[in-house]
Design goal:
Number of strands: 17
Enzyme class: hydrolase
GO molecular function: protein serine/threonine phosphatase activity
Strand content: 25-35%
Shape: globular
Organism: Streptomyces roseoviridis
Keywords: Hydrolase
Radius of gyration: 22 Å
Strand order of the largest sheet: 3-2-1-6-5-4
Number of helices: 12
Distance between the termini: 48 Å
Structural class: alpha+beta
Helix content: 25-40%
Protein name: PP2C family protein-serine/threonine phosphatase
Length: about 400
């Protein structure tokens, strides 16, 4: 039986990945690809925390020289989220770059070197399925080892950033009704910004939180806020009550001396009804038919500012093809060295220019525009951007 035909036995390959020890996962993947797909070489490139480079993993947790996450064959596969086949001349062969993505969360790229004539469409398709299976196992392995998290870093995270990254559900999420892409900066030193989501059969809950202050104090505040919101959400209560319970938890701890601004959104996947509670400073923008507009919600008090605050819900609707963008105060309140506010005008320009791009790239472009406006990648305030494309369900 030829290697290509043997590679049809993907369930067997997945079973071997599941059985591999966490630290041996990539070596197991390389062995499977060599034995069953005839690969001459296989390399995993993990996206760093800032989504700026792809880190080729050599011997965990060590990496080789990084490659751009948005240029070159590997970067193109990462941005486009589709396989890129690179033709090699000497010696003849192919490099197949495959996205490692789990339910919309982009982890990196699997690069497989194949002999000449072996990169046919069917093999590339099966390699893509293998890359997805590998992604699932990478996320599972993260529960038991630090090696892959270490390999994703270009430098050490601050303690506050370490705490914040542990809180995040991922950097993207996708299903038939929607696609989410999100970005945080400064990636290696964030303190108080957070995004969170949870999906069920019929609903999606999305929150963006901005804890006041900086560093470890902001991280502790945001950790309490997100934990309280999740606890209330998992109790199965309404959105306004989720905000009220989280408000009480934060006030009980800080007595109004510290608080967290939060935007809570609950999407009905069947009809596009969105329930919203605006408890602070994150701003919400809406794109439809080539127009960008800010959704003006009733501004209510941040969580924990006063005791037993009562919150109310508002509703609006999204239609298939709509895009929503949420930005934290670290985006819309940032000033340049000369004192110019980043502001809504510049933000609208970026959102308009990136409308054809996928949500991940729009979120990244907003942060890139912010860094350019500020004049340095070392932002003084956290910046969170969440972009959601709404597909909805057929009626």
């Amino acid at each position: 039986m030829s290697p290509v035909k043997t590679f049809d036995l993907l369930p067997s390959a997945e079973a071997q990945l599941r059985a591999a020890a966490p630290h041996a996962l990539l070596a197991t993947a390389a062995r499977i690809l060599t034995e069953q797909a005839g690969a001459e070489e296989a390399t995993v490139l993990l996206a760093d925390y800032g989504l700026s480079v792809l880190q080729p993993v050599s011997e965990l947790p060590h990496t080789a020289a990084p490659v751009p996450a948005h240029d070159g064959p590997a970067g193109s596969a990462f941005v486009q989220q589709s396989p890129v086949v690179e033709v090699l001349r000497d010696p003849a062969g192919h490099l197949v770059h495959l996205p490692i993505t789990v339910r919309g969360d982009r982890l990196g790229i699997l690069t497989v070197r194949l002999p000449a004539g072996r990169a046919d469409a069917d093999t590339v398709l099966k390699l893509g399925s293998f890359a997805t299976a590998l992604g699932h196992e990478l996320l599972t392995a993260d529960r038991d080892t630090d090696l892959y998290m270490q390999a994703r870093r270009t430098r050490r995270l601050t303690l506050a950033a370490e705490m914040q990254w542990e809180l995040l559900p991922g950097r993207g999420c996708a299903r038939d009704e929607y696609t989410i892409g999100a970005h945080l900066e400064p990636a290696y030193a964030i303190g108080g910004d957070n995004f969170d989501w949870s999906t069920s059969a019929d609903h999606l809950v999305l929150t963006v939180t901005d804890g006041m202050g900086q560093g470890i104090e902001a991280s502790l505040l945001t950790s309490l806020t997100v934990g309280a919101l999740r606890n209330a959400r998992r109790a199965g209560i309404g959105l306004a009550d989720q905000a009220s319970l989280a408000d009480q938890a934060v006030y009980a701890q800080y007595g109004g001396k510290a608080y967290a601004s939060t935007l809570l959104l609950r999407f009905d996947l069947a009809d596009g009804t969105v329930h919203a509670v605006d408890a602070g400073s994150p701003q919400l923008f809406h794109q439809r038919d080539g127009r960008t507009a800010r959704i003006e919600l009733e501004a209510q008090l941040p969580l924990g500012m006063f005791e037993e605050t009562v919150y109310t819900e508002q509703t609006f609707h999204v239609e298939p093809g709509d895009r929503l963008i949420v930005v934290s105060s670290g985006v819309h309140n940032t000033r340049s060295a000369t004192g110019d506010l980043f502001g809504e005008r510049v933000l609208r320009q970026i959102l308009g220019a990136t409308r054809p791009e996928p949500p991940h790239e729009t979120a990244r472009a907003v942060v890139s525009g912010l860094v350019e406006h500020f004049g340095s990648s070392e932002l003084t305030s956290d910046a969170a951007v969440v972009c959601l494309d709404w597909t909805g369900r057929p009626r």
